[in-house]
Amino acid sequence: MMRMSRKLSLVSLMILMVVLIGTEEVVQLNALSLCNMTEDDLMACKPAVTQPNPEDPSDQCCEALSKADLTCLCSYKDSMFLPSLGIDPTLAMQLPAKCNLTPPATC
How many CA atoms lie within 13 A of 96 on its CB side? Predict the structure, then answer.
C-alpha cells in the first residue's frame, strides 16, 4: 500500500513539473521563476513563509512581491507545490498585507 502511495506521489510530482515547465512559468533561462518572481526573490521571502518561526518579510521580499503576479501566486494556495518547497501556503497568502500590498479580491 505504501509503495503504491509513493509511486502515485512521484507520478503526481512529475506531472506537475511537466505542466509548469510547459507553461514556462517556472523555467526561464535555466533559472527558477514563478509568477514574475525569480529564485532570488522567492528565497528573499522564504523566511517569512516558513514554519515554525516565520520572520517579518524583508524589504527585499516586499519589493519582489510588489512586482509579482499576485493572482498567479494565489493560484498555488491550494496546491501541493508550495509545501513541497517548504512554504506554508497560509503564511504565503498573508505576505501581501504584511508588505502593504493589496491582494487579489479572489484570493
Answer: 17
pLDDT in tens, 6-49: 443 433 333 444 344 444 444 343 467 889 999 999 999 999 99
Q: Which residues contact 49 (CB under 8 A, 6 or more apart)?
A: 87, 88, 91, 92, 95
Instruction: Please tell me the pTM assigned to this model.
Output: 0.68
Range 2-98 classified under CATH 1.10.110.10: yes
Q: How many helices (H) and strands (E) does the chain have?
A: 6, 3
Q: How far apart are CA 18 and CA 92, in angstroms?
A: 24
